[in-house]
Every structure is written in C-alpha cells, then in structure tokens.
Amino acid sequence: MSRDKRSNYTLAFACYSALACITTYPLVRRLSSAVPHDLGDPLISTTILWWNAHTAPLTQRWWDGFAFYPATGMLAFSDHRLGESLFATPLQWLGASPVTAYNLTLLASFPLCAIAAHWLAFTLTERHDAAAIGGLAYGFCPYRIAHLPHLELLAAFGMPAALAALHRYNRTGRRRWLAVFAAALIVQGLCTSYYLVFFSVLLGLWLLWFVRWGEVRARVGILSAIACTILALVPVAIGYGHIHAYYGLARPFYEIVRLSADVTSYLTAHESLRLWGWTAPWARPEGELFPGATIGLLALAGAVAAWRTPVTRDRVDRLRLWLLPAAGLCAAIAACGWAYAPWHITFAGVAVSSEAPFKPMTVALLIIAVWLGASSKLRGAFARRSAFAFYGMATAVLALCSLGPKPTFAGHQFLYEPPYAWLMRLPIFSAIRVPARFGMPVMLTLAMTGALAFSRLRSGVRTRSILAAVLLIGIAADGWIRPLRLLAMPDTWAASRGHAFDAVLELPLGDLFDDAAAMYRARDHGLPVVNGTSGFEPTHYFTLKTALNEHDPAALDGFPPGRRILIVVDKQKDANREWRGYLDRLPNVTPVADEERWGFFAADLPPPAPICSGEAIAIASIATDGPPVDRNALTDGRADTWWATAHAQRPGDALQFDFGGPAHPCAVLLSVGEFRASYPRKLAIETSSTGRDWTTVAVTRTAGLTMRAALENPKSVSIAIPLAASEGRFLRLRIDEPHPKVAWMVTDVAVIAGAAPE
Q1: At what angle do helices 439-455 and 293-308 cross, to 10 degrees?
Q2: CA 736, CA 86: separation in Å to the nearest integer?
C-alpha cells in the first residue's frame, strides 16, 4: 500500500474513531465506572471478556465457565466473544479493568466496522468519497445503535473485510488476498456465530455472480480458503455441538417466527435515535431494522437511474411483458383474500379461496422476479458482473431472509415457502434463533449499493464534494443518538467472604439484571456462581428458579453433596425479610455474617440417600382416578409421550401401578422431560398387596431431586426416589401437597426391584 493510501485510511480511521467517541458521549469519560444502555447484556459480555483473559480458551475449564453452577458447558449457552477478546484480553493484561476493556472494545467496534466497509467500498469504486459514504453508513447505521448492549452483534467488521479481500483476489489473482479473506472470516466467526452463518448466504451469492464457471483456479482457491476457515473453527463448533447435544438445546419454531422481521421492521428504529426514535412504538422484538433514510434513498435513486438507462430490447424483453398481467391477477386474488375473507370459488376445476392468500401472492412475486431477471438490463448486468447490480439484488435477498420462515407484512404472511424456510433444512440454520439479525448483512450490501450509486454520478468535482458532504451529514444524522444512558457498575461485596466456599448463590435469583450482576461479581471473588443468564439455560436452572421462588424447603437439595455454598442475600431487595426468613427455616443453612447491604449464609448439604441398583419391574397396567392411562406412553423411554393431570396438582392425584404379582420395589424413577416445572412438589409413595391397604414407603419433596436429575440427564430428567423395603403387587404415587397453577406431568416411569425385605 502506498504512503498516500495509508494516510487516507489513517485519516478515515481517525475520523471514524472521533465520531464514535462523540456519538457515544459521555462514555469516553466513564470508561472504568459505567456501561451504556443497561446492566444486562453489557455485564454478561464484560464478565465473559474477563473469563477469556484469565482462562485458556477451549479447555474444559473454559467451556464450563463461571455461572450456572453446578452445570457444565456454560460458555456454549451464548456467543463466547473470543473474537472481541483479541482486543479486550491484551488491554486487561496491560492493567485495564474488565469494564474498561469492555467499553474500549465497544467503542473500537464502530471505527473497525466503518474502516472495513470503507476498504470494501474503495475496492469497488476506487474513490474515497464514495468509500466514506459506505463506511459511515455501515459503521454507524441505526441497526447498530439498536443493538448497543450486544457487543457480539457490534463486532461485524469481518464481513466487509472478507468481501474486500475476495474482490481484490478476483481482480489480481494474488493468493495473499485469500489469506486475508480466510483470516477475516475466522475473526468474524470468533466474534459472533450469527454473522458467520448469515454471511455464508451472501458469500454463496457472491460466488455465483462474480466467479465465472470457467474460472476453475479462482473457484478452487476460494473454496480452499473457506475450507481452511472451517478447519480453524472446527474446535469451537465441536464444543458447541457436544454441549448442545448433551442438553438437547434447540430453538422452537414459534420462537424463530416470533423473532423474524416484518417488512415494516425496515421502517422502525430504536427509541434512542434522535431523528427516528418516534418510530419505536411500532417495532416488534428484534425488529428495529431501519437502515437510515439517506443511504436508503441514495441506493434507491441509483437503482432507478440504472433501470432507466436505455438498452437495446430483444425478443425476451417482448415476451416477458405477458408476465405482468399474470402477476397482477395473482396479487389481486391475494388482496381479495385478505380484504374479503372468507370466500371460495371453483372454475374449470380450479379452486381458489381466501384461506391462504399468501400462496397466490407467492406466485405473483415469483412471476415478478422472473420478469425482472429476464430483462435485458439484468442479463447485461450479469454478463458484466456488475457490482452495483449484485449488491442491490443481494440487499433484497438478504432482507427477504431476515423475514424468517413465514414472511409477513404488517403481521400478514405473504410468502408460502421463502428462502429462509429452505435454509432451515440445513441443521445449522434450524438452530438459529433470530432471523431478523440478517439486518446487519443487509446493511452491508445496502451501504455498498449506496457507495456504488454515488460513484456512478457524472458531475464536477465541486458538485460531487458538496453532495458527498450533504450525504455524509445525512447518514450521520440518521444514526445520531440522544445522550447515551450510562449506568454505574453494580455494588460488590467483600471477596474475602467467599473463602472456604466452593460456589456462590445470590438471592434473589432468576431476574436478568440480578443474575447478570451476580455473574459480574464473580470476577472479584473468583468462585463459580449458581446464578446465570444467557441465550440458553441449562436444564436444571428452570427447576431451581421455580423452587426458590416458591420457597420450597428442598430447593437446595440438588447441589453436589460435600460442597459448601455461600448464599448472599441482597437486603435492598429483601425489605420484608422473605429470603432471609426462608433461609432461616432451612435445616442445613446457617447465617455467617450480616452487613448493611448483604446477608451471608452457609449451606452445608448432606449426601442424598443412595439409590438401589437392579432391574426394572414389568408393569402390567397403570390406573388413575381419571381417564385410562396408556401404559406404553409411560414405559416407552421417550420424552415426547406423557401423562398429565387435567388440573393443577392437588392432594389425592395418583398413579397406581399393577405389577401383576408380588414385587419388592426399592426405587422409583420418575421422568418429567422438558416439563421441568411440573414435578410433584411433595410426593407420597405407597405399596399394597391387595390394592386396598397401603403402606407408605416414601414421602419426599422432589424439587432438589428434580434439579439433580436434570444435572445428571438433562434430556429425560429422571427423578430417582429411594423406597423403604416392602413387598406388594401394587405401587401408588400420590400428590401430598397442592399447587395453585401447575399440573403434574410424567413422561416415563420405572420401578426398580430390590432384595426381599427380611
């Protein structure tokens, strides 16, 4: 790179850095004492960055993390932030606090994204004024402001850097650009898995557009670089795969649909934007995708100008005109379906109804896509491998992907089988929670479309300079935010209180901000914390939250025996002494210290009663007071078949098992699967030889047993209950304590046979 080019990029980076400090002011004045926006995700990222700086990555200890004790694999419940740690870890090693490292990393993400997009735009246009438009539009777009608390989503500089390297390799054939491309992809994958997965769609489109079929060498080189990237990220992927498989972590389809964008999402912005915050009330979750009016209008003006450029029409252009009436008819049918439902018409054997208006609309849009694709303009653009046409069309495709598997406009589905539904047939996309986060790749291609549109202007130097200044001011104004809200870091308690303990439980537990603060305080005392909040939760955590919030006396029984748990109560949130009174009633919990803000207790938990080993007793039949029970549903070893009461738990609800002959049960294994709140709060177990006279062989609270079962087998959650020695043909499980809301659900039951009682 020449000296002039280096100076241009240095000046651009300095300007972007200054703008980042001004935009986020007064963050630059409180780097070590506050974080922006809220005390949720910023604290989580701060603590993960601290963990990455003090633990060897990819080791078992690193994967297990510092939260959700005693569960393992905590780092795989969310993005690991290893990419961001490339910046934050050296800062901490040099003496910066974790908070300072977090804030500096956040600030650096703005100029890094902007300069990477600047480089890509300059590669495409060979003009720094156009590159500044692309860099500013990408690095300071409203979408980034909407995700200011999500550090992993701000680190999006790998995508434009990878594309810039690809374009330079395609132009020069120099292999060093393949190395840069692979390095950018690896860094992007280490920063956030979302963008790496979503960028693969854009990368596939790029290969189809820019690499000609006869260019075997280029294709092999790029695919080889992609293979190297995959190999470099395989250890991380394997770790995530093993942990997610162990816990059975998956995203339900309804959640993916809920967190997809709506077409109107591209008109709504975050409330913190000074110019466009008024659109926030109409935004849906993850739906603040407004790209900015300036860059949007610039790209649109460029597209209109390109479409109006005269070309020589051919026979295909004349034939494609017949497609428009067909598209109009299908669109009219869809509109009638939405406006005048319900109706049904059958004509010449063809049935048309208002039941699914998105189907004819799908046909209409497909016809329009064919009409556009068959035009001589687009055919000519493809023949020239036009960058402007590519980035414009890629913007539309990626925006369509952001709408998820059921695209909607103002809440109405308008496509039947969109591209994202095809992508979900791939395992990696079926595990993605938020399709709306395609918004950042959309912003990248839109920014490049705008930069290319500006570069196509034919005007004098003075006019171009004035217009560039106006556009840059407009883009900055679109992303300008109100004075940034800064929150002071949570209070801490003396780390010395944690000496001689194995883990820390902070109460109250279960609130996002309380749990994030408890995780943050781990960097002081260095102990694993029971609290946790992340993209996923380990299986046991829901049961623990439920039991603690119900003040269940058995809530702590699921922790590993022999481990001392320090329980810390935030007295500001326990004004009525509910938590301290609850702990005072627990037999294995003792107070150890009391301060103005904090109360400290020690939990010394006894070992659980041993569970006998033996063969399962064959169950001849299962009966209840209600409808007949399908015996196979409760003995097939599957979590997707179950039995449940038709009402909330109440004393007397029972399952009765007939073994068909005398048996000697010594334990019951009761599985609740994914229904972790539906465990029986208190269960009595009885045996009988006649079915009339019953002998009680166990009365137990099962909250702790359910938590332990979730830790031992997160998928089946098989509660193991030891029984006193007895003999009988029948065994009955009976609810011994009511619950006002939760039913009793069972996915599987096994009764273990023991030795005959003496």
Answers
A1: 60
A2: 55
What's 495's DSSP letter? G
* Helix (H) and strand (E) counts in the chain: 28, 20
Q: Which residues are registered as beta bridge partners of 190?
A: none
- Domain layout of the chain by residue ranges: 3-30+79-478, 495-604, 621-753
Considering only CA atoms, which of 543, 546, 560 is closest in space to residue 604?
560
Beta bridge partners of 570: 598
**The predicted structure's pLDDT at residue 328:** 86
Q: Quick one: pLDDT at residue 378?
A: 86
pTM, 2 dp: 0.92
Name the stretches of the chain with pLDDT < 70: 1-4, 341-344, 347-354, 756-758
CB 160 within 8 A of CB 117: yes
pLDDT at 213: 83
In this prediction, residue 353 carries a pLDDT of: 61
In sequence order, which ranges of 435-593 are alpha helices (DSSP H)?
439-455, 461-478, 512-525, 539-549, 578-585
Interhelix angle 158-172/98-125, nearest 10 degrees: 30
Beta bridge pairs of residue 648: 743
List b or e across 689-716, with b for residues whose CB sees 16 or more CB atoms inside 10 angstroms: eeeeebeebbebbbbbbbbbbbbeebeb
Region of 356 please: left (phi>0), alpha (psi -120 to 50) or beta. Answer: beta
Comparing C-alpha atoms, which of 360, 706, 731, 426 is closest to residue 539? 706
Q: Tell how far CA 75 is from the center of its chain.
A: 13
Q: For 228-253, b where at least 16 C-beta lie within 10 A, e where not — what string?
A: bbeeebeebeebbeebbebbebeeee
d(CA 166, CA 113): 17
pLDDT digits (tens, 9 = 90+) for 362-413: 888 888 888 888 888 888 889 899 999 999 999 999 999 999 999 999 988 8
* CA dist., res. 210 & res. 753, Å (int): 69
CATH architecture of 621-753: Sandwich (2.60)
